[in-house]
């Protein structure tokens, strides 16, 4: 009779454990589907204002981490509940897990450092998925996160998996705006006022270009003479663009500046070589050569 009671209790515990696992699985599937839908919306390429784009970028960054943490939490709670339904005392297990966790913490200080550093990077919103960052010798586009590391795709192809603890100061090149500066050399006798007027024309044409204009925040401007070089003056220019577009806009500006300069008679500075022509030195060298020739001829005749 006692055996039947134990068996019945055990069967009830197994049944409740199965129901607990099914509920946990259902909760996980619903949570995963909800997070996947949010990620799909956050990854869509619909036209956005700056605030909405920033919010979606933050969601793309945080939701995968939250999904992993939620999976661990649901699994841990489900296992403890199943053990409790089977009659196992879970209080000692929880206490032992706490002691075991402390021991692991002391033995895995690097792992703990990575996880805690990652939490603070997320709280500071230092970078998001899709942004281009640089830290120490690592640089690239942020592709994904885990609890302890960030995955960077270099613009040449290699992928870096960098633990958060290895990052230091992070240079984010994809926030708000980017200023691109460059120098152009022109001869010393160039009319600077004329060049400045021509650059204003180029700036206006850039803003009228339907392909380039949406990426420009402040069109190309000539700041003035930066310095005098060995064979010309160096003129300083700057363009303010949306992050990631500065290289393409600068290349387009180069082409338009070159064409405009050529059409208006403005030349680019080129290295030159000046050859001196001192007539006195040339005459002295010729006389010396003639004297040596006569001396050689006299010696030959006397010999």
Automatic annotation (TrEMBL):
<dbReference type="InterPro" id="IPR010920">
    <property type="entry name" value="LSM_dom_sf"/>
</dbReference>
<keyword id="KW-1133">Transmembrane helix</keyword>
<dbReference type="InterPro" id="IPR011014">
    <property type="entry name" value="MscS_channel_TM-2"/>
</dbReference>
<dbReference type="GO" id="GO:0008381">
    <property type="term" value="F:mechanosensitive monoatomic ion channel activity"/>
</dbReference>
<feature type="transmembrane region" description="Helical">
    <location>
        <begin position="65"/>
        <end position="84"/>
    </location>
</feature>
<dbReference type="InterPro" id="IPR045276">
    <property type="entry name" value="YbiO_bact"/>
</dbReference>
<protein>
    <submittedName>
        <fullName>Mechanosensitive ion channel family protein</fullName>
    </submittedName>
</protein>
<dbReference type="Pfam" id="PF00924">
    <property type="entry name" value="MS_channel_2nd"/>
</dbReference>
<dbReference type="InterPro" id="IPR049142">
    <property type="entry name" value="MS_channel_1st"/>
</dbReference>
<dbReference type="InterPro" id="IPR023408">
    <property type="entry name" value="MscS_beta-dom_sf"/>
</dbReference>
<keyword id="KW-1003">Cell membrane</keyword>
<dbReference type="Pfam" id="PF21088">
    <property type="entry name" value="MS_channel_1st"/>
</dbReference>
<comment type="similarity">
    <text>Belongs to the MscS (TC 1.A.23) family.</text>
</comment>
<feature type="transmembrane region" description="Helical">
    <location>
        <begin position="90"/>
        <end position="112"/>
    </location>
</feature>
<dbReference type="GO" id="GO:0005886">
    <property type="term" value="C:plasma membrane"/>
</dbReference>
<feature type="domain" description="Mechanosensitive ion channel MscS C-terminal">
    <location>
        <begin position="182"/>
        <end position="268"/>
    </location>
</feature>
<feature type="domain" description="Mechanosensitive ion channel transmembrane helices 2/3">
    <location>
        <begin position="68"/>
        <end position="109"/>
    </location>
</feature>
<keyword id="KW-0812">Transmembrane</keyword>
<keyword id="KW-0472">Membrane</keyword>
<dbReference type="InterPro" id="IPR049278">
    <property type="entry name" value="MS_channel_C"/>
</dbReference>
<dbReference type="InterPro" id="IPR011066">
    <property type="entry name" value="MscS_channel_C_sf"/>
</dbReference>
<dbReference type="InterPro" id="IPR006685">
    <property type="entry name" value="MscS_channel_2nd"/>
</dbReference>
<dbReference type="Pfam" id="PF21082">
    <property type="entry name" value="MS_channel_3rd"/>
</dbReference>
<feature type="transmembrane region" description="Helical">
    <location>
        <begin position="13"/>
        <end position="30"/>
    </location>
</feature>
<feature type="domain" description="Mechanosensitive ion channel MscS">
    <location>
        <begin position="110"/>
        <end position="175"/>
    </location>
</feature>
